[in-house]
Amino acid sequence: MEKAEPVTVELRKDFRFEAAHRLPKAPADHKCSRLHGHSFCVEVAVSGTVDPVTGWLVDFGEIKTALAPLQDQLDHRYLNDIPGLENPTSEYLARWIWKRLIPRLPNLSSITVAETCTSRCVYWGPEGKPRKTR
Ligand SMILES: [Zn+2]
Hints:
single chain, binds zinc ion
């Protein structure tokens, strides 16, 4: 039998939550230093090679299951009260989510946090953005 060509993919799944925050390190006259809220949208990406037996990289249901406890922790909360999110910028929120997902989703490749329709932060993990190998 001919050996199947590896299929490399990235899967992306979104989850949303509503939360309040303020940015305590922003200048006092900056609008983000005041208490306000967002409808956050988080995109979780996993990447790797498709399993030739199942035909998938990861079951989307498995990603959803991994996200559920985080959504519970974040939805309708004041983010500054959550341990590790005392300065809840999109940047630190992305890292906070990454740390909690990586044990359950070892193929995790990025976390994108959008506070608004026009502002997003992408975090590629502690090693930074992966370089193209070819
Ligand atoms: Zn904000």
